[in-house]
Amino acid sequence: MSPTSGARIPSALRACLAALGVLLLLGAAPRQGIVAFQTSADAEILTYPRTDPMRIDLMVRRNRVSLSRQIEGLTARYLQEIYVTSIGGGTWFVTLHVDDPRVVARTEMTPGRLLIRLRPGAPRVLAEPEPATLADLLTDDTPRRPAAPPPLALAPLRGDASTMLQPGGRVLQQLPLWRTRLVKPSEGRGWSAVDDYRLTMATSDDPRVHAAASYRLGLEHLGLGWYREAAYYLERTLNSEVPFDVAAVSLAAARAHLVLGRADRTRQLCHQALENGASEVQVLACLGSAALHDGVPNPTAVGRALIASSRLPPHRHLAAQLLLADHRVEEARRILESLAYGVEDPWVHASLGDVRYITGDLEGAKAAWAHAATASRVLARRLVIRTRMAEMLEDGPSEWASRIPVLLDTTRSDDLVAAEAHYLLAQIGDAYGDPDFAAEHLNLLWDRFPRVALRSDAPERLMDVCRQRLEMLEREGRHADQVAFFSACWRPQLDELAADPDLLQHTSEQLLELGLPDEALALHLRAVAVLTRLGRDSPRALTQLTHLYVDTNRAKEALETLEYAETLPERLPEVEYLVAEARTRDRLGDVEGALQAWSLAQTAGSAVAARARGMLLARERRCEEAVELLQGATDDDGRLALGRCLLNLGRPQEAAEVLPTEGPDPLALEDAAWMLGKIATLDPPEEQATDDDADDDGAPDDDEADDSIWGALLEEERAAASYDATLDARRR
């Protein structure tokens, strides 16, 4: 057989070999499922940490292409279900439910396309943390570290500021009772029972009866909602010296103090109840209620411990809200979804609506809120505005402006609905690029509901709005508008939250340029206070403070500030220090010290020292020295001082040449015009001496010289100098 004939292969065999090659290639290729989406060119993908081995969560940002329309009939290997939700603003959540816990997702983002590859791997699933024990909570002082809140185009008040938080005493309604026979329970209810127990106290001298009756009075006032009176009577029982059930009375008093906002006292009573036999679950519920109020102890730790310890719906709802306060959204959602099917509590459904909204389930959120609103008139108005917010996300930003009139009308109320409306209007203003509108409503929220504002991110939002607007005005050189907006936007309480004083310092400089040194000093002192709070010393800021003290005639404070700045490890450049020292000594009246400091500053390279030294010499009538330093002055004040000195030295024509004749300062032009008028009335030198009034040497007589116009001019100059010196002395 020839070599060429051996190369011939039957067609059937060739087909079998080709099929085998394909199978081998498929076997060698990794098995994977492909999920592809069209996206905006600048879209970004973010993969969330995995807590459920059968679920993968992704977020796509800056995407204006609908993803929900692309999942019709979408299937892929390893994929069981896929959910896509938009929360507006170009943000989309993608949830993949896989059929194998070993499946991982690899994402590839190219301009206009998102590719998700599902393949077997070794996924890293975050383990559920071990819940803390009650002993851990009582001894551990680990600082609170909430998770980052999910990004939302429009967010409700959430976290500690959520208006959906259940009232403080609600979870502590199931209290242990002190079962005492010293005082029989009243057959009446409410005020009738209160009268019975007061009568018992009035007709008995037994301290044990007084303690028991006070306890009963405390419980009755709790039922009536008179929490201040309830706390008073329960504290009377706690302070009595007779035996009583300390745990039961402590927990009842804790409920009253919690509703009154006294979280510290509540925690003390929780500890006291534990020390006197209260169960761990009761104490955890007590501590959790306090943590929901002010974040102490760690809400996440208390919530997880409560979930591990109790199956009671009120306790589990409290745990979910504690987790939600720290933005542990997925943990809270699992609890609330299971609770919602078993209880009809409107507070549970309101909280469930919140977590559904945050995770992008707008339809589910509206359904949960509607269920809660029909069952609770207290929650109904708050939930109406949250439903509107969800509808705004569905409509898109182009329709938000049409909602503003209704929201403005909602702000006229005095309840938490108005707080929600102000917060929502501020976000709309920010989205529309209207910082004045946003700042107005954030400040109104702060003024009307300070506790809500401080528990929310309103201060941070307000700082960002103020900073962006002020930086824009500064770039545009609109200093007057900058100062006006600062006064309307930045409130002094923000100083305590600012991470740097730059904004305050820049605005202080603008106030000084506008001729308001006292206001500039007050604002700069606030900037220095921010530096002190941050533990930072800035010699430059202190030097600027020195100049402001000088500008406002506070020479003593200026010198003390300058001396303190000189003791700091970080020293100012020599020139800046000498300039500040010269101005300070001048204001103190130490002319020679100021001249020496200006001289040293000039030697060190200061560009302003020569002029400043010349002005000081001119003011002191040391004109021979001043003229040398002021020659070539270009500013109006410098030219006026040089002109006066030249006149005093008898050089009127030179004075006329340097005096300003045009410029923006009308007062300087008026002074220059007066001196030019005086110079114009002077006779030429050759006409001032004649044969009749001259001596043999041609000089005028002394008496006649004193009576001349030139002598009158010199007298006026001396009088002006005396007036200036007197005025300076009074200022000092």
Describe this structure in words.
- Helix 24 packs parallel to helix 26.
- It is extended and about 110 Å long.
- It is built from 34 helices and 7 strands.
- Strand 2 (44-47) and strand 3 form a beta hairpin.
- It starts with a helix and ends with a helix.
- The chain has 732 residues and is of the alpha+beta class.
- The strands form 2 sheets. The chain has a 4-stranded antiparallel sheet with strand order 2-3-5-4.
Summarize model confidence as the mean pLDDT.
81
| Helix content estimate | 55-70%
Radius of gyration: 41 Å
Major sheet details: 4 strands, antiparallel
What spatial order of strands do you see in the largest sheet?
A: 2-3-5-4
Helical stretch count?
34
Strand tally is 7
Distance between the termini: 124 Å
Structural class label: alpha+beta
- Coarse shape: extended
Poorly predicted residue ranges: 1-9, 17-29, 686-708
What percent strand? 5-15%
Blueprint of the fold:
Elements: H1 3-6, H2 11-28, E1 33-38, E2 44-47, E3 55-61, E4 79-88, E5 91-98, E6 103-110, E7 113-120, H3 134-139, H4 191-202, H5 207-224, H6 227-238, H7 246-259, H8 263-275, H9 280-294, H10 299-309, H11 313-325, H12 329-340, H13 346-358, H14 362-375, H15 377-395, H16 404-410, H17 416-431, H18 435-448, H19 450-455, H20 458-475, H21 479-489, H22 502-513, H23 517-533, H24 539-551, H25 555-566, H26 574-588, H27 591-603, H28 609-619, H29 623-630, H30 636-648, H31 652-658, H32 666-681, H33 702-706, H34 709-731
Antiparallel strand pairs: 1-7, 2-3, 3-5, 4-5, 6-7
Helix pairs in contact: 4-5, 5-6, 5-7, 6-7, 7-8, 7-9, 8-9, 9-10, 9-11, 10-11, 11-12, 12-13, 13-14, 14-15, 15-17, 16-17, 17-18, 18-20, 20-21, 22-23, 23-24, 24-25, 24-26, 25-26, 26-27, 27-28, 28-29, 28-30, 29-30, 30-31, 30-32
